[in-house]
Design brief:
Blueprint: E1 6-8, H1 15-43, H2 53-75, E2 82-85, E3 90-94, E4 98-102, E5 109-115, E6 130-136, E7 147-150
Antiparallel strand pairs: 1-2, 2-3, 3-4, 5-6, 6-7
Helix pairs in contact: 1-2
Length: 151
């Protein structure tokens, strides 16, 4: 990161999502290790029975544990993202997906949230007091001026 990079603060996650982000690996990894050890014990026998119910049960449990460990965090926002404005473009860092830089000329539409601390809370949310302003290329459904919507 160079001296000209500017970090954009991201919104805090809800408590449930942050808790789920911690619990998914804490539950899945011990189950995965325990069942992998159980499978290795079954397969290390002198004549392992490959169609035994214990082995099939352990294989199903390992597959569900891997699915829980890999798919849920990849497809739902459980971890905080980090954003930077750099001279090359918008740099986005996600926990399991890595870092990507979007050049500014490839961004067609931008939705900007401005925090207004004086606005009364409308609903319990982590977006309380934010106003959304949309900038982008005009299309048939939008006007050429930025629109502002309260959240």
């Amino acid at each position: 990161m160079t001296a000209r990079d500017e970090e954009i603060p991201s919104l805090p996650l809800h408590t449930q999502r942050r808790l789920l982000g911690y619990l998914v690996p804490l539950v899945s990894i011990p189950i995965l290790i325990w069942k992998a050890y159980s499978i290795s014990l079954i397969l290390s026998q002198p004549s392992p029975q490959l169609n035994s119910p214990e082995l099939l049960n352990d294989l199903v449990t390992v597959s569900f544990s891997l699915m829980l460990l890999l798919l849920i965090p990849n497809h739902s926002p459980l971890y905080t993202n980090h954003y930077w404005l750099t001279p090359q473009g918008l740099k986005i860092t996600r926990t399991l997906k890595g870092t990507k830089t979007l050049p500014y000329d490839t961004i067609d539409r931008l939705e900007l949230y401005i925090r207004d601390e004086e606005s009364p809370p409308r609903k319990p949310s982590n977006t309380r007091g934010l106003t959304s302003t949309i900038y982008g290329k005009p299309d048939s459904s939008s006007s050429t001026t930025p629109t502002t919507r309260p959240r």
